[in-house]
């Protein structure tokens, strides 16, 4: 069976909303050129992509190529250099970098909440 324990239902009206490894998530189908999984919740019947809520959502690149692009950017490579190394377009690299940065900022703000007071 495919590993589904890291997924949770994104529907706020669901009884198991944001509960990981609750046993309510199943694979409904595969879609797209790269056969991404379409998941659904057994409780509320909500359907969602396995990449929902990530910078890779609606990304039409193969997952390994997109992750390679993000790894190069994380290592400090520029957009042009990353595009050349990964054989991708500059606009694609810039878009993925921007999406990842926006996602990281939202995750930081959500997890940190309030900054500590300076003495």
Q: In words, what does this structure look like?
A:
With 119 residues, this protein is α+β, with helices and mostly antiparallel strands. It folds into 2 domains: 1-52; 63-112. 36% of the residues lie in helices and 13% in strands. It has 3 helices and 3 strands, in the order βββααα. It has helices spanning 63-74, 79-86, 90-112; strands spanning 25-31, 36-41, 47-49. 15% of the residues are buried.
State which percent range the strand residues make up: 5-15%
Structural domains: how many: 2
Let me know the number of strands: 3
Assign a percent range to the helix content. Answer: 25-40%
Spatial strand arrangement across the major sheet: 1-2-3
Largest sheet: 3 strands, antiparallel
Overall spatial form? flat
The pLDDT mean sits at 87
Query: How far apart are the first and last residues' alpha carbons, in Å?
Result: 52 Å
Secondary-structure element order, N to C: EEEHHH
* Number of H/I helices: 3
Q: Which radius of gyration do the C-alpha atoms yield?
A: 17 Å
**Computed structural class:** alpha+beta
Low-confidence stretches: none
């Amino acid at each position: 069976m495919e590993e589904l324990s890291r997924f949770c239902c994104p529907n706020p009206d669901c009884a198991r909303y944001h509960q990981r490894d609750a046993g309510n998530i199943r694979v409904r189908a595969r879609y797209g050129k790269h056969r991404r999984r379409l998941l659904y919740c057994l409780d509320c019947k909500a359907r969602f992509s396995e990449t929902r809520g990530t910078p890779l959502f609606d990304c039409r690149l193969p997952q390994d190529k997109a992750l390679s692009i993000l790894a190069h950017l994380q290592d400090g490579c520029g957009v042009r250099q990353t595009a050349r190394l990964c054989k991708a377009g500059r606009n694609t690299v810039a878009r993925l970098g921007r999406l990842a940065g926006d996602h990281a900022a939202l995750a930081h703000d959500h997890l940190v909440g309030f900054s500590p007071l300076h003495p």
